[in-house]
Predict the 3D structure of the following.
Amino acid sequence: MAGMGQSPRGGSGGGMGDWLRENKSFVMAAGAGLLLIVSVGFGLKALMSGSPASDVAKSSRYRTLVDSETNDVFKEFKIPEGSKWPLKNPKTGTLSLYPAEACYWTTDGKYKEKPTWVFLRAYTQGLDAKTVCPDCGRPVVGHNPMPPVEIMLEAARAKGKG
Ligand SMILES: [Zn+2]
């Protein structure tokens, strides 16, 4: 009869903890890389959802819209198939809803997660009409760009610290 096969304890120890200590910089770099990918993803998403196309059907079915007269914002507004811009404001019954542009800047030049939704004057006043964000005063254009990646990373770091 053999024994109960007691396995020897201890021995290799350390393991993951040592690996993490030795590779700390690698882990941090990987984290930053991931953050970068996420940011770029957000940027792409913003680009793809921001087409002031005349063909509504081709763009996504849900858009954030803004009323050119009242500046009311309709988030994730369901766009009926085959409709043309501007869409009808369900509150006022007026044909005055346009795709809203998102401004992610704070007044002091930082990134904010919840954008200010802005109506582009160019929709009703011609392509030369300039629009500035009513919140931060920066110019807003069609397919309004996100703040640079460094600024978004800085905001993410600040958030991480609490
Ligand atoms: Zn702004």
Remarks:
- The chain has one domain: 24-161.
- The chain has four helices and eight strands.
